[in-house]
Amino acid sequence: MIKFVILGFLMHKELTGYDIKQIMIHSTSNFMNASFGSIYPALDRLEKDGLITATKIIEKGKYKKVYAIHETGKEVFIQWLEEPMDFMKSYEDILAKIFFYGHLPKEKAIRHIEHLIEDIHKKIENLEKLETKIKDIADRFEISTLYFGIDHLKFVVGWYGRFLNDLKKI
Amino acid sequence: MIKFVILGFLMHKELTGYDIKQIMIHSTSNFMNASFGSIYPALDRLEKDGLITATKIIEKGKYKKVYAIHETGKEVFIQWLEEPMDFMKSYEDILAKIFFYGHLPKEKAIRHIEHLIEDIHKKIENLEKLETKIKDIADRFEISTLYFGIDHLKFVVGWYGRFLNDLKKI
DNA sequence: TAGCGCATGTAATATGTTACATGATTTC
DNA sequence: GAAATCATGTAACATATTACATGCGCTA
Question: Where is the Transcription regulator PadR C-terminal domain (chains A, B) (predicted)?
């Protein structure tokens, strides 16, 4: 996932690996806060794949590698953004996409979020079925984690619902 | 984390790798649903470390390996359970512990959850500070992911608070 | 006899962290 | 002149997934 987040940052402007880390701390740390040990190898990979280019410069006596995104990089990024969200893959993945949804036409963003909400509703139904099955055999802690799961998904679906409404209004 | 979940299941009774997978589907799938590709290697590892023992049997013509937990395995499991929860390590990790909190004296469980709630409150404060910093430069989607983070932690902390009250009552 | 459920396992791959190594500039 | 910040990078490790390979027993 980190490669897409990096591409997303590079959509705005050219950055060094260090810059990317700083931006993460101040913007995405809430759902994604990669270490240098994953940022630098990811940049290498992206360069080898021809999605970005590095320019080596010396600024104030400091050696730097400034990365810029290519057209192909932009395409790969938008393609990732347009893939439907899979809420099963941790909510961090979803937030990573929503974070960059400004790059998508509003109608597409709306459609993706509507789909997501439907999927989560189905999942809630499944968990509620599971609950009736196991509530007699599970202890209070065990069943509580299931209740947490249900309540959590209800919170998430409520939040996305409100977000969607705001989005439609403007 | 999977090794502790496996130890937790084995606290109740002896199980095969296949059994463990089935139990996960029907109880923890909501926050942990490991594949066979991680269950079997984990069982091997636990056996090599002397925390569990395998007994090879043939039942209804089917070859099986039934695993039982050792005293050392129980100690390692309880030790893991008694470590304070770190809410930074995904909420799955927290649910995994709460799931097995029935193995802990009630007062300890309460203390751990109280600590957790305090930590999350601090994190919420940090995110709110971050919000005032970036709200002028972030776009609607970018800032929304931060709002999600804050709302999400508030939901989580509220849920744990209610859970704690229920726990204290009984 | 085909397919499903039970049952175990491995190899390739993905994805990341932590700790370490290095060295410059800026700030106190 | 010490400490913090800027800046890049690698090696070892952790953790898990996916896909594949194997084979038995039961049921329609």
Answer: 92-167
